[in-house]
Amino acid sequence: MSDFPSSARPGKLLAIIGDEDTCVGFLLGGIGQLDKHRKSNFFVVDKSLYPSATNIEEIENAFQQFVKRDDVDIILINQHVAEVIRNVIDRHTSPIPAVLEIPSKDYPYDPSKDSILRRAKGMYTAEDFR
């Protein structure tokens, strides 16, 4: 019997939704994966047009597909991409997969826009850490 809970077993994946620079950086770091159905754990958002040349429905679909996969425990998403599908991210309340908003080369991280961080701040007070 394994000592790990079913959602924390070794072999779980990170998924990436982001611009080309972000995805390439993580892929060069070795996180790239294809599952048995040849589906990747990354989705590149084309940033040639503002907010993106990639269709919003495509981004939402990629996010929903990563949420449904049982081999993905963490979804990393560029914060500027998360802003485009904020309503979909806000509806995701399950702790696994965790959704982490990250900066990109062209867009710095803004904690006031991170809905997951805002939700986490509401869970604890300063007295909880004394």
TrEMBL record:
One of its GO terms (cellular component) is proton-transporting V-type ATPase, V1 domain. Keywords: Hydrogen ion transport, Ion transport, Transport. One of its GO terms (molecular function) is proton-transporting ATPase activity, rotational mechanism. InterPro entries: ATPase_V1-cplx_f_g_su (IPR008218), ATPase_V1-cplx_fsu_euk (IPR005772), ATPase_V1_fsu_sf (IPR036906). The keyword Isomerase does not apply. Belongs to the V-ATPase F subunit family. PANTHER family: V-TYPE PROTON ATPASE SUBUNIT F, VACUOLAR ATP SYNTHASE SUBUNIT F. Subunit of the V1 complex of vacuolar(H+)-ATPase (V-ATPase), a multisubunit enzyme composed of a peripheral complex (V1) that hydrolyzes ATP and a membrane integral complex (V0) that translocates protons. V-ATPase is responsible for acidifying and maintaining the pH of intracellular compartments and in some cell types, is targeted to the plasma membrane, where it is responsible for acidifying the extracellular environment. V-ATPase is a heteromultimeric enzyme made up of two complexes: the ATP-hydrolytic V1 complex and the proton translocation V0 complex. This is V-type proton ATPase subunit F. The lineage of its organism: Eukaryota, Metazoa, Ecdysozoa, Arthropoda, Crustacea.
